[in-house]
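ok so I'm stuck.
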Amino acid sequence: MNGETLYSIGDLARRTGLTVKAIRFYADTGIVPPTDRTPAGYRRYGADAIARIELVRTRRELGLDLATIRKVMDREASLTDVAATHAEALDVQIRVLRQRRAVLTAVARRGSTPQELGLMHKLACLSEAERQCLVDDFLGAVFDGLHDHPAFAAVTRSLTPELPDDPQPEQIEAWVELAELSQNEEFRSTLHGMAQDLAADRATDDVTGLPRILAEAVRAQVTPALEAGVEPHSAEAEPIVTALVAHYARILGSPASHDPHAIYRRLAARLEQMNDPRRDRYLCLLAVINNWPAPGSLEPALTWTAQALRTRIPQR
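replied:
not stuck anymore, here's the structure
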């Protein structure tokens, strides 16, 4: 062999740290074939065999199977392509492991039952497509009949949770609770009714934006009154109620003076409908999952406004 130093299988084992059995297996499978044989049939290996073994060891540590390693060694497959494919597979495994870690951390923190653990794991490990399907089903039911509205796509995006690839335990918990909430038929029906009623209020404009418009108006007008301790039935509340009713009348395109008590009743009903703790909870969970600023609760302002309106409606 042109003076090349050859090693016995025992020598190769000592130089590489592998067992004789492992080297013999690699030789039998053709991954590290012997360089030569003695007249008695004993295998002998050259320096290239040591290099091949080191390559095999490295690739095995990266998780490549022996069949793939052999294709790479025999140049039947590009190492670059194999590495890229394997890296993608590892990305998926890492994502799953991170989600499992977050689930277990959340379980340990909240003391979940075995049943809750199973549900959390199932919901947390849904694929992105499966999560999107679950959310699409929920929002599709809520906005049934409004899918052709130009604002529909925007509002569904604003209400869609996007669990990150490396979620924190609190994001896993929030996603599980949101997923459970979205499957509540009563909650779905309530939101659907709200969407339909608001559509009737603003049929020719941004239907889906009306809750936000009303919420912003109530927050701006009522928060200072709450901080000042103004009672909803008091005279000090009168200008606030008048301003909100006028604002709502402009949304309806109907002057408040036309039938003020009808508008009072209608606005009170809308605000009471919006004042559902499950809706607030959904928005809070959504903020956690998407890492958005936590929304302030509108419950005190909505309750105050509805009471202020109701006290000014004559009893029939």
